[in-house]
Amino acid sequence: MLNSSHGSQNTLVRQQRQHLANASPCRKKPVSDDYVKFIRQKGISQSSISDIKIPVPQAYLSDPGFTPCSEEQIIHQFHQNRRCDDDVRKAMAFLSKMLAEKRVFGTKLMAQTTVAGPNHSTYKNLPEEGIHYIAYVCRKVMMHRIPNEDEFWEVFRDVTRKLAARCRRVRHSKKTRSEERDAKRLRESSAVDHHRHHHLQISTTAVAVDNDALKAAAPLLSNLKSNATDTFNAALEHRLQVNEEHLKGIQSTPLQASFKPDTSVA
């Protein structure tokens, strides 16, 4: 009897679990964040990248003035650089950085993105097709240095991590330059305001000095005006007096006798 009851309970538990399993929504398989594995599955032959647009269209959306270098130019620059001759990882990271910045993405797009799995970053990922193209060029250029397929993909996995780090550095660099430009504009604006304020102070002081000078000179000007008026009146009065005396002298002098011809001479 006890065993029968225990068996019934087990059956009930199994039915409840089955019911919950049927009622719950179907869970999707988690999206893999292994971009290297995804690109490797697609392959990196010439045909696999034939439809990829390089630079990626997003590069021009972020920077309409972006001017990409050619693949040949970048490969030539890579071979001219001797710092990466001994270290394969360093060499591939350097080649991928040049491709990303100068041909595939551009620094402005890189500053807005990263290389990470879904929900691993608040920034969007670099376009996968661009990373696919970078893998193709790296494989073509460095095949003689890394002939083993597994080793190549392991090194390229490290390259993608360094691309993410490069995106962070570019982002930080652009942010720093932007802050420096803002600080420079603020300093220049403050200098202009200071110059205007100083010029206004000088102008105000000059006007105040002119007003004070005029006030101080007003009594002197008034005195000069009064003295000039007195001098002019005195001169005019003297002239009138002289003319009057001259007129009186003329009036008091008798007129000469009329001229008569001498008739005594025959």
Account of the protein in words:
The chain has a domain of 162 residues. A two-stranded parallel sheet has the order 1-2. The chain contains eight helices and two strands. About 5% of the residues have low confidence. By secondary structure, it is mainly α. α2 crosses α8, α4 packs antiparallel against α5 and α5 crosses α8. It is 70% helix and 2% strand.
Structural class: mainly alpha
Rg, nearest Å: 53 Å
In this structure, how is the largest beta sheet organized?
2 strands, parallel
Question: Which band does the percent of strand residues land in?
Answer: under 5%
List how many beta strands DSSP finds: 2
Give helix and strand order, one letter per element, not per position: HHHHHHEEHH
Poorly predicted regions are 19-32
Average predicted confidence as pLDDT? 77
Helix content estimate: over 70%
Rough shape?
rod-shaped
Report how far apart the termini are: 211 Å
Topology at a glance:
Layout: H1 2-23, H2 35-42, H3 57-62, H4 71-80, H5 88-104, H6 107-111, E1 113-114, E2 124-125, H7 128-142, H8 149-252
Parallel strand pairs: 1-2
Helix pairs in contact: 2-8, 4-5, 5-7, 5-8
Question: How would you briefly describe this protein structure?
Answer:
With 266 residues, this protein is an all-alpha fold. It has helices spanning 2-23, 35-42, 57-62, 71-80, 88-104, 107-111, 128-142, 149-252; strands spanning 113-114, 124-125. It has a two-stranded parallel sheet with strand order 1-2.
Features:
single chain, 266 residues, mainly alpha, 2 strands, 70% helix
